[in-house]
Each structure stands twice: as C-alpha cells, then as structure tokens.
Amino acid sequence: MEKLVACVQKKPNALCRLICFPWAGGGTSALAQWGKLFNDSIEVFCIRLPGRETRQEEPFAKDMASVINEVESVLLKALEEKPFAFFGHSLGAYMSFAVALHLREKYGLKPLHLFVSAAHTPNSAAYLALQSASIPDGKDEALASINILGGYSELPRDEDIRTQLALTFKEDSRIFQTLSLEAEMNVPLSCDITCFYGSDDKVFDVQGWQELTSGDTSFYELPGDHFFLLEPSNERFLIKYITRCIENA
C-alpha cells in the first residue's frame, strides 16, 4: 500500500476516502497534501506510479492496463471497506475514469463521485487528437512540448530534475496513448461527475462528460491556467466543494 499510495495524514475513522490521480510527469507532492486540508471525515490517498519519487528505481508502467491492475489489486480491500471518491487532474482524470469503469465491470464497485479536472471528454475530437499526437524523443523536445498532456506548473532549473521530468512525462504520454475506452463507455457510469477547468487553459471539450454517466454532471470554470488547482483560492474552493459533495452523498 505505501509503495503505491501517499497518505500524509491517516484518518482511520474517516467516513470516505478520496483517491487522487496526478497529472502527466507529476508525483504525489501536491495532491497528497490535501489530506491535511480536509476534515476528519475524508482521508486522502494519492496514487504514486512507478518510475518516480520513492519508486524511481522501478521500471515505468508499460501501459494503462498495468496501471489499472496495480491500483485495483492494491486498493481493492480499502475500496470495499468504506465509500470512496476519485479526483484526477489532466492525465489523472483519464486514469480515474478508466479505473472507475473497470471497478464497475469487474467488482460492481463505484465511487460516490468522480471529480475530473482539466480534461477533455474521452469521447471528444480533442481527446482523440491527444491520443494520436507524436511523442518527442529527446529531453529538450519533451520539455518544449510538455503541454501535450497539459504542461507543468513550473519547469525546474536543476538539470538532473529536468532530465527525470522529461523522461517521466514521455513515459506517462505513452501510458495515456495505450488507453482505450470505447467498449466500456457504451455503458455509462452511475455516479455524479464534476468537471473543473481553468479560465485561461486551452479550450476544453467538457460538456460531453454528461453523456458518460446517468448521474448528475456539474461544470466549474475557475480562474487560472492548466494548474489553476494550485492557486490557494481555487484550492480552498475545491476542498470545500468536494467535502460538501461527499458528505451529502
């Protein structure tokens, strides 16, 4: 569990767990800290993929199916013992959606709520364009085109860190391009979905998310770019909104 999941504040008496999936090239440092911001009713787990942070010596995941299988095999008991919700940003939104679909098909489990952030609808032309985009080979090319899956809040100056970021981003891009959802999306989810996006981000095709669930769908534009969620005022809004949705559910 500790290899896959970062949990900075354990809350054994929490009523629900929020499972967070980070963006391409990202780790757990930002979203895991949410565990300190939510009240005691919500425990936060942030997914740590191989090839980064404490798993840097492990080989990167070869495809999205292996990511889904690891998340499910490690978290299945935790997901069965109490209610859970998903939050995913950019690439993490697609990961969370894919895991939600697979949990429904294989185990009959569903999140209380799916919160997706800065992500095109998976049945949109914009999403399909991302899936077919070429992945740069060299480090400089990768850093220059890191916006393929949404960019990075601020590129580090340290050369070793830049090299690792470029490699992680390229591998995450390959994982993303192995994701196939066509068959599973024929049967929509039944949980509520909320979609967040930044006012200064690229134009996102988000309205289609309402076609992917029989539950309610909400949309919120927040001030900022692709990483609007890192702005303190937006973070406070997200924490308050997510808490309300989970507690009402």
TrEMBL record:
Q: Which Pfam families match?
A: Thioesterase (PF00975)
Q: Which reaction does it catalyse?
A: (9Z)-octadecenoyl-[ACP] + H2O = (9Z)-octadecenoate + holo-[ACP] + H(+)
Record-annotated Thioesterase domain positions: 17-237
EC number(s) for this protein?
A: 3.1.2.14
Q: Which InterPro entries match?
A: AB_hydrolase_fold (IPR029058), TEII (IPR012223), Thioesterase (IPR001031)
**Keyword field:** Fatty acid biosynthesis, Fatty acid metabolism, Hydrolase, Lipid biosynthesis, Lipid metabolism
Task: Keyword check for Lipid biosynthesis, yes or no.
Answer: yes
Q: Which GO terms describe its biological process?
A: medium-chain fatty acid biosynthetic process
Superkingdom of the source species: Eukaryota
Q: What class of enzyme is it?
A: hydrolase
Transferase in keyword set: no
Gene Ontology terms, MF aspect: fatty acyl-[ACP] hydrolase activity
Q: What family does the entry list?
A: Belongs to the thioesterase family.
Q: Identify this protein by name.
A: S-acyl fatty acid synthase thioesterase, medium chain
Q: Which organism is it from?
A: Melanocharis versteri
Lineage of the organism: Eukaryota, Metazoa, Chordata, Craniata, Vertebrata
